[in-house]
Amino acid sequence: MSAQPNPPRTGEGDHAQRGGGVSPTALRPVVGRARSLRKTMTLPEVLLWQQLRLRPKGLKFRRQHPIGPYVVDFCCLAVRLVVEIDGFAHDVGARASRDAVRTRFFEDNGYIVRRVSASHVLADAVGAAEAIAVGGARPLHHPSGGPPPRAGEDL
Questions:
Q1: Into which CATH architecture does domain 42-138 fall?
Q2: Structure pTM?
Q3: What confidence category does residue 93 fall into, taking pLDDT thresholds of 50, 70 and 90?
Q4: Would you list the DSSP string of 10-62?
């Protein structure tokens, strides 16, 4: 009579057959940070999210979405639009220079960045969402359309 192999201990098993057992946050810590930020959104973020989740102008937004090493407040991937809410803390100290670095990173990667003040969202969240959606529905630059024609080429 042969001995049966011991069953796997708790937490072990056929992980290799099912795609591994490593947590996604262990691979990308920014994903874990985005998940925790979704749970602790500020009041302006909550108010704006209540409007953006209704898909104004048919645009689907994500909240607290990781892009590269950063987590943006809101993002519409279809038109590559990033929305950042700036409160009082963004006006103090070195925060403005860090925001400029973030904005440059997003723009270098093909995103349009819209910054909205928290006071504007608190005063009129519906109007702020509408302004964001209008800008996203008709961006000034259409990356998929290529560059505009040179003078005389459109004839």
A1: 3-Layer(aba) Sandwich (3.40)
A2: 0.70
A3: confident
A4: TT-SSGGGGT-S--HHHH-HHHHHHHHHHHT--HHHHHHHHHHTT-GGG---E
